[in-house]
Amino acid sequence: MKILKKILMTLMLVLFLTPVILWAGGKKEAPKAPGRPYEGARITIGDLARGISDALKPYLDKFKEETGITVTLEQHAFDSLRDKMMIEFAAKSGYFDIIYLSPGYLGELVENDYILPLNDYMKRLGFRSEDFLPAAIEISRYGTGEEIWGFPYLADTSILMYRKDLFQDPAERAAFRSQFGYDIPIPTIEKPLTTKEFLDLAKFFTRDTNGDGKVDMFGFGYPQIGVAYGNLYIMPWIWTFGGDYFDKNYKVIVNSPQALAAMKYALELQKYQPDGVLAWEYGNHIPRFYEGHLVMTAGWFNDALAANNPAKSKVAGKVGYATVPRHPDSGLKTGKAVLGGGSLAITKHSKNPEAAFTYLNWMFGNESRALEWYLNGGSATLKRIYESPKVHEKFPWAKEFFPVANYSLEHIAKQRPTVGVSHSLFEVMAGAWHNVALGRETPEAALARAQREMQAILDKWRRK
Amino acid sequence: MIKHKRTTIPILLFIGPAVLVLTIVALFPIMYALFCSFWNWHLHRSTLREFIAFTNYINLFRDVRFLKSLGLTFLFTFLTVGGTIVFGFLLALLVWKPFRGKNLALALMTIPMIMTPVVSALIWKVFLFEANVGLINWLLSLFGIRGPAWIATSPWAFVSIVIVNIWFMTPFVLLIIEAALSGLPKETLEAAAIDGAGYWKRIHYIVLPMLKGTILFILIFRITIDYRTFDIIYTLTGGGPAFDTQLLSLWVYNVALRTFQIGYANAGATVMMVAVGLICFAILVVATRERRERWLSK
Questions:
Q1: Looking at per-residue confidence, does B292 or A242 come out higher?
Q2: Is residue A101 part of a domain?
Q3: What per-residue confidence (pLDDT) applies to A8?
Q4: Is the CB of residue A283 less than 8 Å away from at least one CB of chain B?
Q5: Is the same domain home to A170 and A88?
Q6: Which residue on chain B is closest to A424 by alpha carbon?
Q7: The domain boundary residue, chosen from A393, A414, A435
Q8: Residue A444 domain-assigned?
Q9: How far is CA A451 from CA A314, A416, A461, in A?
């Protein structure tokens, strides 16, 4: 028994003392090779589980080989990434070094001091801002501040896809002319569709094509589910009609004649969309367009590009691209769409912020690597990518797409409100739109209520 | 005295670990949630943490969206618990008597229960409830009925989440009632049949009273599960349209993890927990009154 006790005591001592001895001994720093200042550093990226992040994986080993920095890429669904990062931030854990930064929560992270402004790193570590699409940088700007909070990663916006073959069909053109008194307009960058033309087209193409008494082709269709897409649907219409959510003094201006006109317009347009769009997630409309059930829809770049890919779309070769419709009385030169995508931010509690920035610049700032990444499913944030012959060779069907995409990013895409209480504001507006779409509130009543509720949210936020 | 000590220590040793685990995983979180509910606490603003006593609770009862969620949660729980018990009981009656392939039939009927809730909800959403190409509306169209946009309009979105939850949880009720039915004394039922009691009379006057304990267990168990339903609703409707399917679980999730008002979210969760606790307690009191009276009269 005594021997057993002695053995146990010795074991316990060894267990307790080993970490102490190891700690007291200190960490032996391995000598760093010249040109590899961050050798041995480890960084963890929290990114969205999508094709563009999948396409980053082949470069991780090469980056480690060149710099000695180990990168771990974690991929999460949008909501779970947001939930996880917020918990990690609140705990100040430094778990993530780099996180995907959506404009949807940019304000919360900046206001709570969870991410680092990158301007200083950009100056010191060889970032060439002139090489990037301005929108890709703009997306990580908070309010009107000078700070850049994320590295360009994914610049996107909605562009209009339409069935070129139907727009150009002589029989359709004749029928449209007899019904509306003018020819089907073919949109161009210089002359986009007006909101009236867009509505007429949506109405005209909504029909029963096989005579079974059921409408099976719709003029338009776009997801409107929940807070995110309820808001992402109504907000661009309000912008397009010349309205906005609040002014630069945080005075809510959503109960305006422009917003009212937009809401009424959206309600009218709802008649020419399939039943159920209020429950469509983003992506639910894309297969319907590819299958030929929708004549017009709007989509992010990847979906728009693939619409003419014969491997993915039944209407390949028949899809035209255009900028979103413009409202002639808005006082704006173009319609407006939400600046989508996001950037990659470095977290405040990262232990290796410089190594993190080195990775970002290595991966996305190098033209040939960024081009290769784009061709393998990545995104294009460098200006020259869209002009590359390799890109045009890989996507020969998309000649019309690139100019529209570029123009939309430069002139049409608009950053959504990034204040820390954005989600609450969007919740109010999505609720107002859903109430109007369900016929539960008039547009006037919904906007008046939204104005009151949003102002209360903003006032409370400003007091803090 | 010594004898008493000898029995107490083993009892404590046996139940101690369980009590400790329960305290850590259940009691502490509940007490902590209750504690948080008296604070104005924003998860990401460490400076903004002040004791506000019952202010969160007062605000809750002025919050239209919370009240709507509370009402929806009660209605949802009532309909789904009732629905699962009715359907589970009827299905159990169907498979009560032995027949060839009974085990296979039971196994097939339990498939919904073994599926992941998110997968079940997606199947319903994409293949069944879809307004234009979904199976349900196609079937309705065969009878000349134009089906609604199930998960996109009111009140159909709410009806949809009730249907899916009943479908998902009925097998659980079926299995329990089927097991209870198998254990009923055959003699009593046979005697009633000989005395001329018809099938439904036997069910009403003999089977149902004998299953009272089982149904009570199911009732309480299902209430405490259903009021927390999250995954099916999140996947099917996301709480929409216009918050018409935002049950309290989604409300708490949104307030806690979208707007980070931890104190307020905990107050909402506490109200619901207390309400459900009171309902279960009331059911128990009513259901066991007879037994208690019998015991007291002895």
A1: A242
A2: yes
A3: 54
A4: no
A5: no
A6: B259
A7: A414
A8: yes
A9: 44, 17, 15
Count CB atoms within 10 A of the CB of residue A87: 13
- The band of B156, judged by pLDDT with boundaries at 50, 70 and 90, is very high
**Chain B residues closer than 8 Å to A93 by CB:** none
Q: Are residues A430 and A410 located together in one domain of the fold?
A: no
Q: Which CATH number belongs to the domain containing residue A55 in this structure?
A: 3.40.190.10
Contact A279 B48 (CB under 8 A): no
Q: What percent of chain B has pLDDT over 90?
A: 64
* Ranges under pLDDT 50 in chain A: 12-13, 15-16, 18-28
ipTM of the complex, rounded to two decimals: 0.75
Do A323 and A431 sit in the same domain of this protein? yes
> CB contact, 8 Å: A274 with chain B?
yes
pLDDT of residue A154: 93
A437 touches chain B (CB under 8 A): yes
> Which structural domain, as residue segments, surrounds residue A102?
42-155+340-414
For range B123-145, the mean pLDDT? 91
User: What 3-state class would DSSP assign to A206?
Assistant: coil
Mean pLDDT of B267-290: 89
pLDDT surpassing 90 at residue B136: yes
Q: What's domain B65-297's superfamily in CATH?
A: MetI-like (1.10.3720.10)
**Interatomic CA distance for residues B254 and B260, integer angstroms:** 8
**One domain, residues A430 and A305:** yes
Say whether A278 and B132 touch across the interface (CB within 8 A): no
* Mutate: best of A80, A82, A225, partner B, most B CBs <10 A: A225
Amino acid (one-letter) located at A5 = K
Q: Determine the Cα–Cα distance for residues B88 and B95; give it in Å rounded to an integer.
A: 11
The beta-carbon neighbor of B243 closest among A89, A280, A431 is: A431
* Residue matched to tokens 């059930």: A293
What are the boundaries of each domain within chain B? Answer: 65-297
- A431 with B243: CB under 8 angstroms? yes
